[in-house]
Amino acid sequence: MGIGTATHCEQQASIPHPGQCSLPSNTIYCTSDTTPWVHRRSNITGNITTTTTTQTPHRQSTISTRHRRRQSRQDKWHVYSLHEDKRQKYRQFYQGYNTFQTKLQATHENLSRATSSHFTDPDSRHYYEPRTSTTTDHHVRMGQDTESREMRRTLELLQNGGTGFLPDSKQHGWVRVMFENWNSLGIGTQSWKMDRLNYLITHLKIDIIAGCESQCNWTMVDTNNQLLALLAPGKATKGVAAHNKTERIQKDQAGGTAIAGIGRICNVISDTGRDHTGLGRWAWIRLGQGDTSTRVITAYLPHKPGRNSRGRTVWEQQSRYFEA
Q: Which structural domain, as residue segments, surrounds residue 240?
């Protein structure tokens, strides 16, 4: 029969051995030192079918059948509950995720409630009261008060010898012109005056800048230091600078006039010009074309110098030209 390593073989009795389950009467079981196996005889064909059964070691063979079944059921329950817990957690996670995504979608009611709460809550810094006729009258009186104070301040400046008051803001459609006696722009010395001039142009929203006493012979200055290259960086400029071309005295030559448009007004500047004698007494720009146009002129009127003059003043330059 080829039992192999079996050391004990017997016919199944009606009384099972301790720790073993009962087998049918047509079953022959054999045990070995390593792997037990069982032969079952078939009543119909007479063949012998071989099945292998696992048994616990000798120390565990004393455990009762009921205890083994209970332990088997307990292990299956633990495995089953673990998979169930994972599925349940995944299901709860996706439910929470979908709920959260739904709450993120703001409805018209939520937006209305959120925005209106800021203005209707008296403790909120955005709270305001609806404007009534009394509130409107109050604002009108405050505006009249502010305007009256500005007018009184302007009149006081004019009465005390001042030149007027220039507000920072400029209304739409206004053209603001600025004129100043620069007393040298310091082109050759890298003076702070050009930086200050550009600051005033930006701060006061100047459209046309004009001045005299630029004190520069522009023919002795390179292209990067010309007036239009230094004026209002980043903005469009169009204008002209004039100086005495009849004499070549020095780089920081006394006298000179200049005028330029800055920004959008450059689109309406149709022409520019300077003193035809070459003395640089005036410079101008023309706004508009056709029958209606506006010419803005800047001019310099020198005064007679003292006895200690060295012949470089504007008066003396023009005197030499007209006396020649």
A: 177-323
